[in-house]
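Weekly sync, protein design subgroup
Attendees: M.S., D.O., the rotation student, P.L. (late)

Item 1: inverse folding check
M.S. brought a backbone from last month's batch and wanted to see whether the design step gives back something sensible before we order anything. D.O. pointed out we never logged the input encoding, so this time it goes straight into the notes. Structure tokens as presented (341 positions):
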């Protein structure tokens, strides 16, 4: 069955056509970077208006690129939560309108659960059950996934999400929005052992993260107030690329250690790493390295990543999980509300 997936929870207008929850026929993402860049971050009102402007064109293009017409679509899936309320409403309302006009079943998809599911859309997906880290701009959560529709949160961040920390540290480094990928690019040329930034909860048996401390440590370091720069002027404290690389290493360390700890606690030697931050090449490298060394249930841990096009926000993962909701009879009513949190 072909599902049309629609995603507008934040600053990407996205639509995709996916067959049977796995084969991606098209995956169109229209970024709003140019609109938010002058403001240094996502402006909710601008995001909603931009979604309204392009949603129809993005859906049309997803159908065209897939080479199908609406008559061939078997169901519509749209992100219903969590996200910016005005932004969510645009995609969800578009989905409802198509479902109503064409007499199609509607699925209301949880965006974070769709990130968990995105790992299953890789050419080499993890078998169930798997432990899944979702590290995005809004969420940092470790799940145990039993099936597409049955997951349990094992732990989460106690303050900032990992992507949020990347974005905030990027601002401190004078990088423009979107900060995460720009900081990661700067970090690639830096020395990741230059500064030892804090890693929270590494030896704590509970699965939890904290990224506000490392962000503050970057601020103090840049001000030359952490002693590392000897009280020197900010510019002399360290090269910006070294700060970026050392910051990234601290965040990556915490994500890798706590996720592998969760896998060990669950006795599951399969880990998936999803969400926007999983686009970080250093994160992927460190996960591969540490997983090889780890032993869970007598085996090395296998790490799975979604295809890169499915790491940041996209409609394909929404269509993917939407297929399973519809197959299980979990059709949403047209009164389904958008829920921000
Ligand atoms: O999953 P996503 O597209 O949206 C949310 O659901 O939040 O994740 C976006 C987040 C942003 O915070 C962005 O800075 C971060 O992912 N991100 C990265 C990279 N690419 C995107 N963080 C680190 N390295 C990257 N290469
Ligand atoms: Zn996301």
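Designed sequence read out in the meeting:
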């Amino acid at each position: 069955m072909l599902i049309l997936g629609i995603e507008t929870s934040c600053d990407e207008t996205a639509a995709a056509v996916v067959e049977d929850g796995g084969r991606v026929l098209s995956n169109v993402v229209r970024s709003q970077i140019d609109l938010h860049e002058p403001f240094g971050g996502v402006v909710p009102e601008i995001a909603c208006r931009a979604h309204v402007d392009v949603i129809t064109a993005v859906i049309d293009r997803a159908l065209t690129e897939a080479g199908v017409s609406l008559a061939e679509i078997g169901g519509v899936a749209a992100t219903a939560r969590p996200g910016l309320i005005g932004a969510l409403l645009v995609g969800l309302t578009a989905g409802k309108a198509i479902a109503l006009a064409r007499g199609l079943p509607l699925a209301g998809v949880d965006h974070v659960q769709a990130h968990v599911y995105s790992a299953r859309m890789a050419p080499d997906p993890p078998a169930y059950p798997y432990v899944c880290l979702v590290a995005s701009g809004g969420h940092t959560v470790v799940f145990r996934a039993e099936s597409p529709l049955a997951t349990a949160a094992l732990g989460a961040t106690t303050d900032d999400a990992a992507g949020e920390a990347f974005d905030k540290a990027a601002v401190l480094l004078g990088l423009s929005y979107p900060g995460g990928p720009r900081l990661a690019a700067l970090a690639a040329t830096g020395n990741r052992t230059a500064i030892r930034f804090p890693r929270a909860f590494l030896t704590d048996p509970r699965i939890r993260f904290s990224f506000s401390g490392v962000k503050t440590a970057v601020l103090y370091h840049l001000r030359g107030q952490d002693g590392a720069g000897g009280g020197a002027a900010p510019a002399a404290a360290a090269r910006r690329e070294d700060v970026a690389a050392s910051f990234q290493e601290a965040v990556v360390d915490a994500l890798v250690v706590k996720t592998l700890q969760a896998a060990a606690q669950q006795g599951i030697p399969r880990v998936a790493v999803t969400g926007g931050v999983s686009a970080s090449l250093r994160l992927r490298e460190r996960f591969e390295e540490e997983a090889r060394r780890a032993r869970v249930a007598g085996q090395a841990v296998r790490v799975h990543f979604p295809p890169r096009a499915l790491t940041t926000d996209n409609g394909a993962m929404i269509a993917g999980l939407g297929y399973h909701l519809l197959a299980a009879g979990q059709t949403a009513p047209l009164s389904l509300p958008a829920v921000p949190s």
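Discussion: The longest helix spans residues 240-266. The longest strand covers residues 23-31.
Action: P.L. to compare against the previous round before Friday.
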